[in-house]
Design brief:
- The protein is an alpha/beta fold.
- It has one domain: Rossmann fold (3-Layer(aba) Sandwich), CATH 3.40.50.620.
- It has six helices and eleven strands.
- The strands form two sheets. A nine-stranded mixed sheet has the order 9-8-7-10-6-1-4-5-11, with helices on both faces. A two-stranded antiparallel sheet has the order 2-3.
- α2 packs across α5.
- The radius of gyration is 22 Å and the shape is globular.
- It starts with a strand and ends with a helix.
- The structure holds adenosine monophosphate.
- The site of adenosine monophosphate has 23 residues, from α1, β4, α3, β6 and α4.
């Protein structure tokens, strides 16, 4: 295998992390009308890592390709990725269809074949469904080694070393390309796109495909039965002294 990296970065368009999600009237999901959408924050970190790999290793990266599976509007996050430094991109337009991780992974597998990618950097999870599954399923479909929850990535020729965040410490893994990495929060701090680069990105390639072009059927195996708000918290009580606090705590049998 050539040691030049062809990096694929899958990006999901999700409700902006700063928006407080509300349940829709039907109780089947989150209300999306009139809500701001942006690139999933962990995907932004994955993209940033691919850019840093190119900056830190002269001539090692042949191409950084961004891909999103979602509605036509997901092209906005691809344009942002192109403005930040991705070279090319693909939108797999699935309209307003909710696509579950297995199908996302099957579509990504086809894009990997098309783009001849040898390193895939995904976010560890999408903040809308919190599935934390796509990278792992894709590694299974491709039969490639994977390192999830990366907090550090080092490349030496075709060898990739990844430090992972695990409970109470870190875990260091290494594998030969091709490989899959999923990005954790502390991997890096993503850059902003500059205005000149936003303008230049308008001319960069954005290929539009349908799932049928990739020969993948959009089927769902999971059905969402109900989405509920967490129970409202009971109102608090103000106490005037430590003695009063102690007697209140005794009253509710907390001590
Ligand atoms: P999830 O398994 O849904 O929590 O998502 C984990 C990662 O998989 C995300 O951070 C993305 O990198 C990728 N991913 C998930 N869904 C999509 C999608 N619809 N389009 C592109 N990438 C996706």
């Amino acid at each position: 295998m050539s040691s030049k990296l062809k990096i694929l970065v899958p990006l999901k368009r999700v409700i902006d992390f700063a928006t407080k999600p509300r349940i829709n009237k039907a109780g089947t999901g989150v209300e999306t009308t009139g809500v701001k959408f942006s690139m999933n924050p962990f995907c932004d970190i994955a993209l940033e890592e691919s850019l840093r790999i190119r900056e830190a290793n002269k001539d090692i990266v042949e191409k950084i390709h961004a891909v999103s599976i979602g509605p036509t509007k997901a092209q906005d996050i691809l344009r942002t990725a192109l403005a930040k430094g991705a070279d090319t991109s693909t939108l797999v337009d699935v309209g307003n269809e909710e696509v579950e991780p297995l199908i996302v992974a099957k579509l990504l597998q086809k894009v990997v074949e098309k783009e001849q990618s040898n390193l895939i950097i995904l976010g560890k999870q999408a903040i809308d469904d919190d599935a934390n599954q796509t990278g792992q399923i894709l590694a299974g479909l491709l039969n490639w080694p994977q390192a999830t929850n990366a907090s550090k990535v080092e490349i030496d020729g075709t060898k990739v070393t990844v430090t992972r965040e695990v409970d109470g410490g870190s875990d260091t893994l290494s594998a030969e390309l091709p490989m899959i990495i999923t990005a954790d929060l502390r991997l890096n701090e993503p850059r902003y796109a500059t205005l000149p680069n936003v303008m230049k990105a308008k001319k960069k390639p954005l290929e539009k495909l349908k799932s049928s072009d990739l020969g993948v059927e959009l089927v769902s195996r999971l059905e969402t039965l109900k989405v509920e708000e967490p129970p409202a918290r009971a109102a608090g009580v103000k106490v005037g002294s430590v003695d009063e606090l102690v007697s209140k705590l005794k009253e509710v049998k907390a001590i």
